[in-house]
Structure formats: C-alpha cells, structure tokens
Amino acid sequence: xxxxxxQKDKTSEEEEVLQAVVLxxxxxxxxxxxxxxxPRCLLPICNVPMxxxxxxxxxxxxxxxxxxxxxxHSDQIKEAIQTSxxxxxxxxxxxxxxxxxxxxxxGDAMRELDEKQLISSDFILVAGDVVSNLQIDRVVREHxxxxxxxxxxxxxxxxxxxxxxxxxxxVGDTSVFVLDPETSECVHYEPILAEPRxxxxxxxREVLEKHAEVEVRNDLIDCAIDVCSVDVPVxxxxxxxxxxxxxxxxxxxxxxxxxxxxxxxxVVEQGYAARVRDTKSYAAVSKDIxxxxxxxxxxxxxxxxxxxxxxxxxxxxxxxxxxxxxxxCTIGNDTILGPSTRIHDNARIENSVIxxxxxxxxxxxIRDSFIWNDAYVEGSxxxxxxxxxxxxxxxxxxxxxxxxxxxxxxxxxxxxxxVEFKRISREKPEDEDEEEGDEEKHELNGLVNGLADTVLxxxxxxxxxxxxxxxxxxxGADGRSSSAARDADSEDExxxxxxxxxxxxxxxxxxxxxxxxxxSSEEEEESSLASPxxxxxxxxxxxxxxxxxxxxxxxxxxxxECISSLERALAEGHTVDDAxxxxxxxxxxxxxxxxxxxxxxxEFVVGLVKGDPGSAVQKNNITPVVERWAGLIINxxxxxxxxxxxxxxxxxxxxxxxxxxxxxFLYAFYNEDIVDSLSIRAWLKxxxxxxxxxKASEGNMEVCWKQGVQTLAVIEAxxxxxxxxDDE
Length: 728
Known about the structure:
- The chain has 728 residues and is an alpha/beta fold.
- It has three domains: 16-279, Spore Coat Polysaccharide Biosynthesis Protein SpsA, Chain A; 310-467, UDP N-Acetylglucosamine Acyltransferase, domain 1; 555-727, Serine Threonine Protein Phosphatase 5, Tetratricopeptide repeat, CATH 1.25.40.
- It contains 22 helices and 39 strands.
- The strands form eight sheets. It has a ten-stranded mixed beta sheet, with helices on one face. It has a nine-stranded mixed beta sheet with strand order 16-17-20-23-26-29-32-35-38, covered by helices on one side.
- Helix 19 (641-654) packs across helix 22 (700-727) and helix 20 (662-671) runs parallel beside helix 22 (700-727).
- The longest helix has 28 residues, at 700-727.
- It is globular.
- The model is unreliable at 432-456, 471-493 and 510-554 (pLDDT under 50).
C-alpha cells in the first residue's frame, strides 16, 4: 500500500485547476505599422485573431483558468475576450485579463505574476500568438511526474522536431538545445541568429563531465509553450536582470552553480505547434492552417472564430456568409474568402487570405498575400506577397510588391508602385526624428523619397508615410525603448538588429543560413566561439560533424555526385529533409544554380518509373514514385512551379520511353500539390514550353505541350465538378 503522503499528493493534484498564463504582448516591433492601433495578439490569421487560436489550443489541453497579461491596447484585448465564445459559461474556461502597464518584457510579467500570487500550482506559460493542436495535458502530466521525483525540475520546454528547411523554422531566431538523451534534461542552451553567422558553439566542460552522453540538437523548433512550476516566477523576482525567457532565464538557470535547478525538454514528434514570431512565420503558419496541418483547428471544421466556411478541392475555403464572386473570376488553390467579400470580373486570387467585407476589383491579381477586413482594392491592381491592413484603399492600376506591410486605413493610388519590403502607414513613423519628419513626409499628391534615393510613387490621392527600413531595428528583444536598448546586452541588441530582422520578413526567400553562396571568411572568424577542436560544428540536421572545408568541385562532377546521393537516399530510406540537406550541401560545394539541382532531381524521379513506353505498368508506377519524392521536389521548387514543369517537359521530350507518359506525370504532380492548375496554365502560356531542345527531341516539346492542354482540361473539369458537388 503506498504511503499516505503520496496518496494525498496525488489526490491534491487531481483536484488542482490547470492554469495557464498567456503573454499577450510580443515585446518587439516586427509587425509595425500593423500594430500601431491593434495589439499583435489580435491580428487576424486566417481571419481569426491570434489570441483565439491560443485559447483554442489551451482548451484542447483541458486548461480551466487563463490569466492574460497585457500592456499595449489592453482595452481591445479585454473586449475581445469578453465577446469571444471562450468567455461563455459553456466554454468551461475562466479567463482573467491582467493589465500591467509596467510590463516591458517577459521578466516583468513573471515578476508581477509572483507579486500578485495568482498561480497556485504548476502552470502552462504560452505566448499569445501560438497555434497548436498538441495535447499539452500530456506534457503537464509528464512534468508533474518528474517533479514528484525531483523538486528542482522547474520547467519543461515544448519543442518540435523539424527539418532544416521547414517553413515555420525561424531562420533569424533559432536555437541549439543540448539534451541528455536518457532523461531529456536540457543541459545547455544557445540562441543562434542569422547574423552574425556562427559555425560553432562552446560547451562548458562541466556538461560533459556530468553527462556521459549528450545530443546537440539544432533540429528543434521552440514552440513557445512551457510547463512551469511555481518556482519560476519566484526566480524571476530574485533575478531582476532576467528579461527574456530563453536567453536570460533558461541560460541563467543552466549556467548557475548556485540555483541548482534543472530544465527539461519535451520533444514533439507528432502534432502541430508554431508561434507567429514575425511576418515570415505569419505567412508560414497561415499556409499550414490552410493546408490542414493544424487539424482539427481548420477553416470549415472547427475554426476558433466561429465563422463557417465551405471547403472545396484544392484547399479553397469560401465563407457561407454572403460572398459574391463573378463567374469570370479565378479562385486558385490555398485560398480563403471571408464573409461578405466581393470578387469582381476577371479578378484572380491564389494562395491568399481575403478578410471579411473586402472588395477586389475587376482584373486585379492577388498572390501569396493577406488582405484584412474592410479593405478595398480597385481594378487592375497586382498585389504579391504582402499584408494589407484593415480598411486600406488601393487605387486602380496599383502594384504592391512582396514583403510590403500596409498599415490600417492607408490610401494608395491610383497607379501606386510600391517596391519590395516597404512598410507604409497612414500615421507618421513614431521612430522618426521630429526634425527630419517634414523631409520624410509624403505629400498627398506627390512623389516620396525613401532610403538610398529610392523614389516610391504612392499615387495622386495617397494618404501615407513610408517607413525607413531601419525603423524599430534598435528596439531590444525585451521590448525596451531605443535608448534602453542601447544599454542592453549586445546579444539582445543583435536579436532585433536590422541585419538579423531582415531575414524574418515575409517574402524574403533568398537567404540560406547554411548554404549561402557568398561566405565571408572574416565574418566567420569573428563569429566562431570555439575552434573545431573544442567546439561543435553546427549543421542543419542538428548532428555534429567533423569541421572541414569543401573544396571546389566542377559542375560536371556535381551531376554524378547528386545522382549518387539520391540513389543512397532511395536505398537507405532517407527522409525528404535529409535528402534536401545533402543536395544543397553538394550545390554549395559545386557552385551550381538551383535550376541544375532541380533538373537532376526531376530526371532522377522520372527515371525511377519502370515499364515499357505507354504500358499499364509504366502508368501505374508513376503515382507511387511521384508520391514518394513529392516532398523533395516541393522543397526545391519554392515558387518556381513553371520552371519545374519546363524541366519535366524537357526530360520527357528528351527520353523517348517517357514521351507518352508526360500527361500522367503532369497529373501526378498536380495531385501531389507540386503544381496547381494556375501554374499549369502559366506553363502553357510560357513561350519556352513550345521550344525545341535539340535534334533528338525535335517536335517532342510540342507533343508534351499538347498533352498538357488535354490534362489541364481534365483537371479543370474535375475542379468544376467538385465545386458543383460542394454547391449541392
């Protein structure tokens, strides 16, 4: 019979209310100017405020009481809580807003939590911009079981294993976790920024002395979900220099000889969890929701906001509430149309989210963008890779290029021409110097001077200011003002420095932290913290490898080495992520373009299909082969879908055995979401799709092109049938 004390402990734990603390403030300025008038946690993601996604995640975990710490725009947050379904008695949640004007960092929030004595037992600490379908209650039980054996185990961090190139992996704000493989104890933590680049970390000697074996993990995404004991707020109160949860608190606890506390990691292998840390992760998480990786939290099924959507083939979600679409408009895959939205003649929308009560004018093209509620876009506009805020008006014939953030209420156009990565607001940038303000102000009917003599034409009737690229770059990671940030630790400054922040921007796809084509030996020398003999070399997969320099290889050798790598991956059953890492490593060593990498991969995949030309065996083999390697092709394709179709066409045109099979490959590529109907149509219109590729395949390109026309007709007919069935 177990001791009475143990029975009492278990009984009291069963009676404890599971509590959570939500940090509504982000303590950085990465979303400005979109957050000038709206708190970041209430910005919509897939037409639902981020905070409601977090509440839904906690409700799934069985949380009964939630404390929401807020500072900026606290009145809006309180109103959003009161009007949400989570505040209703049927939800079974008690949500308490805690307004804290003094809170300027996570550390301040934890100290106030300790001061107010709101927490009575172990609790979940989570950011207010987390989307998750994880069963966090399991992590809580694991944490409590560990605490029964070791009272010094004060925190369990939830991390998720991912590939090096997963779209939710934050390039400019990642981490290295050093774990004891037997106990999952985190014995060392190291933040890794995009700039300055680092190739090594330095492990304290004590770590290796105390632990017979450790794992250096650079393949983990920090989910911003922690299970904490009541000791955590107390430690923040005792150490006023703790501001950031990871860089200060976790690092401080793990390196302290006096505290004697331990922190553990729970590595998630299944399920979904991601934090919207910046505009780049905003786009990535939105795509994951649309692609249903967050199931059951998806549009059309269990959306936290309560709106009802009709799910159609190709991950298209159309609100059931008064959406008006012209018969000549085109709604592409991976798209959401919010309630009371109007799409006019010949408008084209793909890979985008359109908010409630928006109007999209005739002939307008919107790609990879997010249009928030009550926006009005006139005709013949092109919007690509942007976030357009609430009640924005964009005039006729305007072009807004990738990476742009257009603040609430801004008016552009007509014929505005906004270059990449610009931030524009109706209000004057608050970080600008007052003396320079008049020079930077955009007259309503004139041209506006930006940085580096760039001239932005905002249109004749524009009401807007263009923000300098470096506005907000000197704000510390703890959210302190510019002057305070200058006095902060250099590591805090580097996190929010412009050189690092630029890699966290939506639409910035050109930076590869591991396989950059241009390396600075001087920069690497400065950023390395340890020599190869005493440190650990960082690789994307999170495994230590010997430190060596890859010598230059010829482009001719690249092809054979690439094929050998793919054959090994096939024979040994490597994952898609591992295969992609090896290919990109070879690319770096051989100094070849991504097009050459894609060409080899497409030819390899086509060549795996066996069977006589035109036979049923060949046709039946195509689907499983493409299904097996689709992830690798998608990983390498990025947005170059037309290019991969051209490569597939040239391969089948050059290899007679596969000429008649082109249409089946094309359909398989479509079914596996490598390409969509819009990209197939764009490929057919591309002049290169009808060009010859040498005497051996003269006329074969035309044969493939005609097969493509037939296949597209079948695909579009299938899509129309699917839509008709949905309408019924």
